[in-house]
Amino acid sequence: MRRPMILMSTLTVTALVATGCASAEPATAAPSPAPADDCPAPPAAGFDTPDGWIGLAAERPEDIAFVVDTGDSSVAARADRDQPLASAVKVVHLVAYARAVADGTLDPDEQVPVLDWQRWYAPGTDGGAHIAALNRLGIPNDGTSPLDPAATVRLDDMVSAMVRESDNGVPDYLRYRLGDDALRAAASAAGWTDFTPPTLVGTNLGALDPTVDRDDLWSLAQRFAFDADFRAGYAQNVTPPDEAAILAYYDRYGPRGSADDLARVYRAVADGSLGAGVDDVRRQLEWQSAPEPFTAMGFKGGNLPGVLTHGFEFRGDDGRTAVVVWLTHGLDAADYGAAMENLAAHQQLLVDAATDPAVVPRLACVA
After folding, report:
1. What is the pLDDT of residues 113-136, one digit of tens each?
2. Which end of the chain has fewer CB atoms within 10 angstroms, the N or the C?
3. pLDDT at position 4 over 80
4. Helix, strand, coil shares of the chain as percentages rounded to 5?
5. Threshold 0.85, pTM exceeds
6. Class assignment of domain 1-367?
7. How many angstroms separate the Cα of 55 from the Cα of each of 17, 196, 311?
8. What's the rounded Cα separation, in Å, for the pair 262 and 223?
9. Residue 15 — very low, low, confident or very high, per pLDDT cuts 50/70/90?
10. How many whole angstroms separate alpha carbon 311 and alpha carbon 251?
C-alpha cells in the first residue's frame, strides 16, 4: 500500500494584484487610530473581496491576527497571540542565510550537489513546490528526482526556491547546515527573542504518521533525509488522518509565532536595522514589482491545512517603509479552499493597507 499523500502546499504570491495610491510624505509612525464611536457595521464576511476579509476579521477574531504599520499610522489586532505561521516562518531562515554569507560562513556561489537538496524533499507533501523550483532553475527531472545525479545548484539559487516556490527542503537544509543557534541568533537580530526553530519537512512527515514522536519532528526529518531504507518505507501502512485531526495537528505542531514576531523581522528588513545581511535578504524577498508609492516590496507567505499567512515589507526611495502581517488559522476544509481560490482578494487588502490611508481606520474598527 502506498503511503497516503496529503497536499500541503506552500504559498507564493503568484496571484498578487498590486495597486496603490499616493499618500503624504513619510512621518514618524503614529499610534493606532482608536475605533471611532461611529464605526460603520463591518462588511459582510467573505473570502472573495478585500472588504470580505475585513468582515472576516470582525466575525472571527479568534482566528485572525494582524499588524499594519505604514509609518504614518498603525493598527494591530491580537498581535501578541501565538499562532501557526506555516511557510511565512521561512523569512527567519533567509535572515540566517544572509548573515552567514555576510560573515563568510556560507558562499552564495557554492555549487551544492542537487542530491544534498533532494534528500530533504518528501514527495507529495509540498504542493509541487520542489519540482517547480527544479524546473525554474533548469534542473532536468522526472517529476520526482533530478535526472543527473551529479548535478549541482548554486547555493543562492537554491535559497531563492525557499522564497519564490516556498520549497520546504531548503529551510531544513539550512537548519541542518547552520544549526539552531544560528537560526535563533538571526531571529534575535530582527527582534524576535523567543524563536523556536521549526522543521518544515518534519512537520509534514509527522502529519502522515500519528505513531511517530511528534515532539521530536526534527529527528524524524533528519532520519528521513539520511536513512534511505527508512525513507523508502516511511508511512506506507498508516491510516490517513481525518480533517479534524489534520487541523489540530498543524495548529499544534506547525511553525508558530505571533504577528508581532513576524512584523519585527519585516520591519528590521525594511528600515535596515537588521544590519549584516540585510541587502541579501532584500534581494531575495523583493523579486516582485512594488505598488506606488513604493519602489520595493518583499513578501513571504505560507499555507497549510486550515492556515493562511502573509508577511510584507515595502520601501520607497524617499525612505518611506511599511509592514503588513496577517495570520489566519482555524479554517475548515471548505473555508480553506475558498481562501486559497481567492488569494488575490486577500493580498489586495494587504497591499491596500500599506498604500491607501483609508484602510487603516477601517481595520481599526474591527481590531
Report:
1. 999 999 999 999 999 999 999 999
2. N
3. no
4. 45, 15, 45
5. yes
6. alpha beta
7. 20, 32, 20
8. 30
9. very low
10. 19
Alpha-carbon span 156 to 144, nearest angstrom: 22
Q: Residue 268: name the closest of 98, 103, 100 by CA.
A: 98
Q: Quick one: pLDDT band at residue 260, thresholds 50, 70, 90? A: very high
Residue by residue, DSSP assigns 254-274 as S-EE-HHHHHHHHHHHHHSTT
The residues spanned by each domain of the chain are 1-367
* CA distances from residue 94 to 14, 157, 178, 253, 269 in whole angstroms, order as listed: 20, 12, 12, 21, 11
Q: Which sign does the torsion angle of CA 56, 307, 264, 268 carry? A: negative
The rounded distance, in Å, linking the Cα atoms of 133 and 141 is 11
**45 within 8 A of 36, measured Cβ to Cβ:** no
Distance of alpha carbon 275 from alpha carbon 102, whole angstroms: 10
Antiparallel, parallel or unpaired: β 152-154 and 111-113:
antiparallel
Nearest-Å Rg of the Cα atoms of the chain is: 20
As a whole number of angstroms, the distance between CA 117 and CA 122 comes to 11
Place of cell 547555493: 155
**What are the pLDDT digits (tens) for 52-66?**
999 999 999 999 999
Those residues with Cβ within 8 angstroms of residue 57's Cβ, 6 or more apart along the chain or in another chain: 42, 64, 66, 77, 363, 366, 367
* DSSP state string for 189-204: HTT-TT-----HHHHH
Residue type, 292: E
Which among 219, 218, 169, 212 is positioned nearest to 197, based on CA atoms? 218
Amino acid present at 111: Q
User: 26-42 burial by CB neighbour count: b if 16+ within 10 A, else e?
Assistant: beebeebbeeeeeeeeb
Residue 239: pLDDT band by 50, 70, 90 thresholds?
Answer: confident
pLDDT of residue 240: 80
Cα torsion 248, 252, 258, 259 to 10°: value is -30
